[in-house]
Amino acid sequence: MNTSHTDLNTAISAFLQQQQHDASPYQHNRTGSRSQVLKLIYPATASLLGETSMEALSQVYASHYPSRHWDINHYGEQFPDLLAAQHANAHSPALPWQAIAALATLEYQLCSLYYADSLSTQQLKAARLEDASEPVEVDFSPLSESMIERLERYHPLMDSVAAELHCSPVWLMRCNFRFITLAIPDEEVTCRSACG
Amino acid sequence: MMTFPSERVCRGAGLGLRIPHIPSVLQHRPAVDWFEVHICNFLNGGLNRTLLQEVARYYPLSFHGVSLNLGGLEALDTGYLHALQQAVDKFQPALVSEHACLTAHQGEHFHDLIPVPFNARSARHMAERIVQVQDALGRRILIENLSRYARYEESSWTEAEFLTEVCELSGCDLLLDLNNAYVNQINLGESWQRFVEGLPLERIREVHLAGHSLQGEYLIDTHNRPVCDEVWDVYQALAPILNGCPVLIEWDSDLPDFSVLQQHCNKAARIHDSIQARSAGVSHEHIAY
């Protein structure tokens, strides 16, 4: 920081300090925007947890993890770890926390499909072609059918992209993330033959 | 090669386009004059970017940013600026705007719009950064007034005086958010009328209308509700002096069906167009005739 900014720095730091109390809209917005984005990044997870649990967990995460990147879509990468840790938390409801954490991990990766700079439609097409020529092994063992249905329901953008690529959304997610599985659902087999 | 609408100017009434509505917009291509996007969500090369390319084929675009941190003290994020520059070069949006605020401090990003002190020192600082941005983009940007919930002791100017000075020093233009002006009147007792009167009207290139919520003692700029009657009245009152400025409906969270947004956009268009027709010396009856 430029030393000539000392006066501005003092003013801004003092202002922010003054706003660090529960009644301040700035404090409310600060944690509120973080917990809100967790619900946007992890909608299927949120639907499984229910509103109360998701709100409580996202508030905990938001108050302990400040954002270090301008792009809020990158926020929340460690949220699945917090979910997995609930397994050992005596106060948490009895839920399949490891599976929920696996679902959340997948959702975060899915979110990066929307925003990541390392992925383009061309690359997705390439991934599809490459996978079509090889047996695809997908491991859905941590995820129940209901979880996969939620992924489809809560990530509708995949439908647009899938339509462009002539694949089903779930198939696209599977081949892009290259999960290892024991069984390929019928839907995917159909899609693969349609995609050639 | 990408093709764009033959006219890339934002005229009339536009809508803030949010990601959940993109598939529907691409499928139905609703009659909306133009769309504004939160460009931070499209700066990288992910699927969103692909979808935005499709939208740009059919609609003029305005890019609205929330992360440039124009009032911040750390150096401008060159990665962000470079990505923005590439997006602007590629899409050639009709307008590019940001907020007159800081969004990060001492390494933390707030994802909220924090005001800066309104004084000469702060105005000079922000103007220098805007010049850097404009040089990088090769074009003028618009800066937007904020909703505020507290004041700086260090502010010796009004918000209008501050924005006017920033515009003078940097050559940037203004995005006038009427909901923000109204919210400030309720929260801080700063008259929206006096605020607008203090602005260089010739620099206003876009108007925002949005909804707010009451939380405790404050009106919060939540963009999750319809524009309130009072803000519609403010727009109605100001439209004649805004020289046909394009107007935008912003609705960011608790999104309703797209058709609801379109109804609000149509209302803004009716006000905008009636004022335009009147100022051209032609009444609606004459047009109908």
Share in helix of chain A: 55-70%
Low-confidence stretches of chain A: 117-140, 173-196
The 3D shape of chain A can be described as: elongated
The end-to-end distance of chain B, rounded to whole angstroms, is 43 Å
Structural class of chain B: alpha/beta
Amino- and carboxy-terminal Cα gap of chain A:
56 Å
Q: What strand line-up does the widest sheet of chain B have? A: 1-2-3-4-7-8-9-12
Oligomer: heterodimer
CATH first level of chain B? Alpha Beta
Mean pLDDT of chain B: 92
Instruction: Return Rg of chain A in Å.
Output: 21 Å
* Biggest protein-protein contact in the assembly: A-B, 49 and 51 residues
Which bin fits the share of residues in helices of chain B? 40-55%
Tell me the count of domains of chain B.
Answer: 1
Beta-strand share of residues of chain A = under 5%
- What is the number of beta strands of chain B? 12
Spell the H/E element sequence of chain B: EHEHEHEEEHEHEHHEEEHEHH
pLDDT under 50 segments of chain B (min length 5)?
Answer: 282-289
Number of helices of chain A: 11
**CATH topology of chain B, anyone?**
TIM Barrel
The major sheet of chain B is characterized as:
8 strands, parallel, barrel
How would you characterize the overall build of this protein?
The complex is a heterodimer of chains A (196) and B (289). Chain A is built from 11 helices and no strands. Chain A is mostly helical and 196 residues long. Chain A has 2 domains: 1-118, no CATH class; 120-196, no CATH class. Chain A is elongated. Chain A starts with 5 loop residues before the first helix and ends with a helix. In chain A, 34% of the residues are buried. The model of chain A is unreliable at 117-140 and 173-196 (pLDDT under 50). In chain B, helix 1 links the parallel strand 1 and strand 2 (34-38). Chain B has a single domain, classed as TIM Barrel (Alpha-Beta Barrel), CATH 3.20.20.150. Chain B has 289 residues and is α/β, with parallel strands linked by helices. Chain B has an 8-stranded parallel beta barrel. In chain B, strands 5-6 form a two-stranded antiparallel ribbon. In chain B, helix 1 packs parallel to helix 2 and helix 4 (120-137) crosses helix 5. The chains are: A mainly alpha (196), B alpha/beta (289). At the A-B interface, helix 1, helix 2, helix 6 and helix 9 of A face helix 1, helix 2, strand 5, strand 6 and helix 4 of B.
